[in-house]
Amino acid sequence: MTHRIWNLSAGPAILPESVLQEAQEALLSLGDTGVGICEHSHRGAAFVQVAEEAEALCRELAGIPDSYRVLFLQGGASMQFAMVPLNLLTPDATADYIVTGAWSKKAVSEARRCGQVHVASSGEESNFSRLPRTHSWSSHPRYVHFTSNNTIFGTQFASEPEGIPEDAFLVCDASSDIFSRPIDVSKYGLIYAGAQKNLGPSGVTLVIVRNDLVESGREDLPAILQYRTHAAAGSMYNTPPTFGIYLMMLVFRWIRDQGGLSGMEQRNRRKAARLYEAIDCSSLFQATAHPDCRSMMNVTFVTGDADRDEAFVAEATAAGFNAIRGHRSVGGMRASLYNAFPSEGVDALIEFMEDFERRQ
Amino acid sequence: MTHRIWNLSAGPAILPESVLQEAQEALLSLGDTGVGICEHSHRGAAFVQVAEEAEALCRELAGIPDSYRVLFLQGGASMQFAMVPLNLLTPDATADYIVTGAWSKKAVSEARRCGQVHVASSGEESNFSRLPRTHSWSSHPRYVHFTSNNTIFGTQFASEPEGIPEDAFLVCDASSDIFSRPIDVSKYGLIYAGAQKNLGPSGVTLVIVRNDLVESGREDLPAILQYRTHAAAGSMYNTPPTFGIYLMMLVFRWIRDQGGLSGMEQRNRRKAARLYEAIDCSSLFQATAHPDCRSMMNVTFVTGDADRDEAFVAEATAAGFNAIRGHRSVGGMRASLYNAFPSEGVDALIEFMEDFERRQ
Questions:
Q1: Fewer CB within 10 Å: C terminus or N terminus of chain A?
Q2: Segment 157-216 of chain A within 8 Å of chain B by CB
Q3: For each successive 10 residues of chain A (360 residues), what is the average pLDDT?
Q4: Which fold has domain A260-358?
C-alpha cells in the first residue's frame, strides 16, 4: 500500500485513487492489448476507442447539445486566452471581460493583443475578495468573458453573470471548477478548462464550443490555432496528449459513478460548507473571500498575522497536508477541495486547525 | 507479469519497460512524497526537482552549450511549424525549406502563412524515396529548415544538409530521430521534437534554441507563442505537462545508463542493419527508401503486391507485432525501431518475415 497524504494543491491537483490505480495497469498494457497507454498510436483502434469514450462521457455528464463540439487540445487556459480572441474577435468588434483576479487579467492582456477589449467590471477595488455584481457593457460586445472560479482569491460565481447583452455570446474560463456542479452549456458560446484541477493531469485542455463559432472563426491564422482545424480532425490534427485524454476518460467514468455532476455538487457543497463553518466559528482563522462569493473549490483563509500563517503552513505541511500555502501573490492559506478531494480530508484538516488554534 | 507485445508503432511509440515500471509507482506517490506525479503542483519542490533534472540530463546527453535554452513546451511539431516562422521569420526575409515528405510539406505550408518561403530542394520526384543532395538556396535566407528523419517514407539524413548559406541558421524538426545518435547542437539555431517517439509520451515538445534567437524574436505575438516567454519563465509560463516532463526525465536517465547518445547510435545501427539485411536478402520483401537514405528509425518495406502486404500485416498483427502497417498515405509495412525497441524484437520480426516468405 502506497502511503498517500492529504493533497490540497490548487493544481495540478488530487485525482481519484481508483483512477490512478487503473492508470498504473494501463501504463504497461491498456486492457489486454500488450501495449501501454502512452505507447499506442493515436490513430490505432485502442486509443480511438479511449478518445471516443472520453467525448461521449463528457457529453453525457454535461448534457452537451449536438450543436457544440467537444475538443481536447493542448496549452491550457493560457493558450485559450489567445485562441479565443484570435478566432472570435473580429477587428471591428469589442469583447467585454469581467475581471475577477489574476487569471482574468491575463485573459484581458492576451485579448488586447488581438483586438479591442472593454473591461465591463472588476473586483479590483475589493482586492478581488468580491465578485462584481453590476457590469457596464460596451455597446455591442462580440462576447462576454468571465472566469467562473478564482483559485487565488477563493471566489466563485454562483451562476452565470446576469444581463449579458443580446447578440453577445458568453465565454467562460472554467479551468478550476469545471464539472464540480451541473452546467447549462446552452448558455455559453465557448467554455474552456485546463484539465489539471477537476479532470485529469496538466497538458490537456477541454474546449466546448458552439458549431457556428467554429465555422465563423478567422481563417488566416496558423492552422493549429484555428478551432476549425481541430474540429474537422476530431482533435487529431496533430498527435493529441494521449495519456491525458485517457486519464480524463477515467475521471469522467468516476464522476458518472459518483452520481454525475449533481453528485459532485452535493459532495463539494458539503465539503466546502464544513470547512467554511469551522473557519467562521474559529476566533483565529478568517476566510478572505466575501461570504456571497466564496468558492467551493478553493477555500482561502488567514490568521491575520503573517508569522502565524507561516507557522500554520509549516506545521500543517509536516502533519501531512500538502500544498496548503496560499498563492505566492497573496500569502495566507488555501485548501483546494476539488472533486477528488475526500470529505475525510476535510475532517482531518478541521481537526488539525482546531488543534493548532488551541495551542496558540 | 503484464504480457507485452512487440510494438512497432511510429508514434506514440514504445517506451523502456523499466521507465514505465517506475512511472507506475510514481502515479500514486512520487518518491516518498505521498502525492502522485500528476498531482504535484508544478511550482512545488518535488516537481521543480524533476524539471531541473530533466533539463540537466538533456544538456548532459546532447552536450548542449550554455548559449542555448532548453524548453519543454506543448503542441508537438505542429505547433513548432507555426512558432518557428512566427518568431523568427521577419516580414522582409525568406526562409528556405528542404522538402523530404509530408511533415516538411506541412512545415512549409504553415511557414507560408507567416512569411516568404523558398523550397530549396525536394525529394518529391522520387516520391520521397531519396533525400535531395543539392539545394538551390534563396539569396539571403534567414534560416534553413529540414526534417532529419521521415517516418512515412523511411528516410533519414546521415548528417546535416551541406552548404548552408553563411548567415543563415539551421532549424531542424528532429521529432522522429532526436537522441537516437549524437548531435552537434552548435550547428543549429533551433531544434524541435515532439517527445512521442524517442523521448516520452505525446503532449510534450522539446525545443533547443540559441539565446540570441530567443531574444531577437518578434514581440507582437500572443505571449504563449513567443519563445522568450517560455525562456524567461523556465518553461513554467503556464502549467507544463508535468507527467510528460517526468517521463522524459526517466527516459533521459535510461539513455544515460545505456551509454548515452553513442550507446543509442550503436544499438540503433545494429538493429536497423539487421532488418535491412534481412529485407535485402529476401526475394519477397523490398525496402522502399533508397539505400543511401535509409532511416535507422523507420524501416519501410513492401512485397510489391498490395494484397500480399495486407496478408502480411494481418498475420504479423495476429502474431503480436503491433502497428506494423505503413502510414495510411503510402501503404505497405513499417517497422519503427526507436531507441526503446529491443533487439530481440528485431530478431523476432526477421524470423516471422522469413517464415511468412517460406509459406508463400
A1: N
A2: 194, 196, 200-204
A3: 90 98 98 98 97 98 98 98 96 95 97 95 95 96 98 97 96 98 98 98 98 96 98 97 98 98 98 98 97 97 97 98 94 97 98 97
A4: Aspartate Aminotransferase, domain 1 (3.90.1150)
